[in-house]
Write a structure and sequence with these properties.
Blueprint: E1 2-6, H1 10-21, E2 25-29, E3 50-51, H2 55-60, E4 62-64, H3 70-75, H4 78-87, E5 92-95, E6 99-102, H5 107-120, E7 124-126, E8 131-137, E9 140-146, E10 150-151, E11 156-159, H6 174-182, E12 186-192, E13 196-198, E14 209-219, E15 222-233, E16 237-239, H7 241-250, E17 258-263, H8 270-283, H9 299-309, H10 322-333, E18 335-342, E19 349-354, E20 372-374, E21 382-383, H11 388-402
Parallel strand pairs: 1-2, 1-11, 2-7, 11-20
Antiparallel strand pairs: 3-6, 4-21, 5-6, 8-9, 9-10, 12-19, 13-16, 13-18, 14-15, 14-17, 15-16, 17-18
Length: about 400
């Protein structure tokens, strides 16, 4: 059977490999000058390719439509994923949180291994070949048009074009258009696993990394979600591990009247923190408060904390009232910023995509078109950070390529 895979990313390459191993004649149509362009930057270039945990744990870390993935993950779980890459000659290691990386810490090793296998299997990889449209007659795709020509020997098509995040890697949403033209419902694609933009100016804190803090998102004072760990300030908002996790949860929320709140001292209750501040002020009673706060927090945070506490920057410690000190305690435990949105251009993944109700969970085949399947980020499934999203890409790619009939 002549199979065309549109998209040469993680899911596309995996689909092509297993379709070829199943005996099909496979061609990848990739719009970029090389395969795996987005895969190259995942995990900060280290490629967190899966999470060494159970199928149930992966589903629990899938934010949307996790149950849809049960069959695909059961047939190609994290153990099988690791075995697959090690058989291709890539030694792996497991780090904190069961995150799996190549021992070399190089995503290029994962891409090279996939490309070697594609070459070994004689998969035709057409680079710089952007698909413009797919032609359908009745209930089947009959041809694919690209910028270079028309492929009319189509028996089966797998669309694995990714989402709309990191458009410089080729993820411009073309696949959504192809699926929509065929009649599929597209759940509005939005960024996930991304920085959160703040309305306040935070550029003076850009680059500041905070560890062991409690971050939460609130809407009209009600807690939506929270995460403990590490975060950092960017030029326009906040990022880092805590923020990525929170963004996955809130990216589909109406973000009006929402705030990003940081507990800078989660290990201390308000009473203990107040006693510590009293001690610091008594030991430095004749100093300006701005010169005493260094023991409590990084220098670049002091101005913002004092402003939200409504305490003058040059206020002398022995002149700070009990009421002002209590305000300071509350701000340290609840440093608050107003959320302006999610950072789209550098989002790790896209939430939304082809509606799962219209896809068979067994083989990722379209329920509307008999010779079409989907794989990877184009499907309306997304997960937390930690290797879960790439595991989903590989598992759905395996399901799409290994079950062509």
């Amino acid at each position: 059977m002549k199979v065309y895979v549109i998209g040469g990313g993680a899911a596309g390459m995996m689909s092509a490999i297993f379709a070829s191993r199943a005996g099909h004649d496979v061609t990848i149509l990739e719009r970029n000058e090389k395969t795996g362009k987005k895969l190259f930057i995942t995990g900060k270039g280290r490629c967190n390719l899966t999470n060494a945990s159970s199928v149930q744990n992966i589903i629990e870390h899938t934010v949307r439509n996790g149950k849809f993935l049960f069959g695909a993950l059961r047939n190609f779980d994290s153990e099988k994923c690791m075995e697959f890459f090690e058989e291709l000659g890539v030694p792996l290691k497991v780090e904190r949180g069961n995150r799996v990386f190549p021992v070399s810490d190089k995503s290029s090793d994962i891409i090279s291994a996939l490309n070697r296998e594609l070459k070994r299997l004689n998969v035709a990889v057409k680079l710089n070949e952007r698909v413009i449209s797919v032609q359908q007659e009745g209930n089947k795709i009959t041809a694919i048009s690209t910028e270079k020509g028309i492929y009319s020997d189509v028996d089966y098509v797998i669309i694995a074009t990714g989402g709309t995040t990191y458009p410089t890697t080729g993820s411009t949403g073309d696949g959504y258009r192809f699926a929509s033209d065929i009649g599929h419902t597209i759940v509005d694609p939005i960024p996930s696993l991304c920085d959160i933009l703040l309305k306040e100016k935070v550029s003076e804190m850009q680059g500041l990394s905070l560890k062991n803090v409690q971050c939460r998102v609130e809407k009209k004072g009600k807690n939506i979600c929270s995460e403990f760990g590490e975060m950092l300030f960017t030029d326009k908002g906040v990022g880092g591990p805590c923020v990525l996790t929170l963004s996955a949860i809130i990216c589909k929320e109406n973000l009006s009247d929402t705030t990003f709140v940081i507990d800078l001292k989660p290990a201390l209750d308000t009473e203990t923190l107040d006693k510590r501040i009293v001690r610091e002020f008594e030991q430095n009673r004749n100093k300006a408060i701005k010169n005493v706060m260094f023991s409590l927090m990084p220098k670049s945070l002091i101005a913002t904390v004092l402003m939200q506490s409504e305490i003058g920057f040059d206020r002398i410690c022995n002149g700070v009232t009990k009421e002002e000190r209590q305000r300071l305690v509350q701000v340290i435990k609840n440093l608050t910023f107003h959320i302006g949105g999610c950072e789209k251009e550098r989002a790790v993944i896209t939430a939304g995509g082809v509606k799962t109700d219209e896809i068979s969970p067994k083989n990722m085949r379209s329920k509307l078109c008999e010779n079409l399947a989907f794989a990877g980020e184009i499907i309306d499934v997304d997960a937390m950070t930690g290797g879960y999203n790439l595991q989903i890409a590989f598992a759905t790619g395996y399901a799409a390529g290994n079950n062509i009939e």
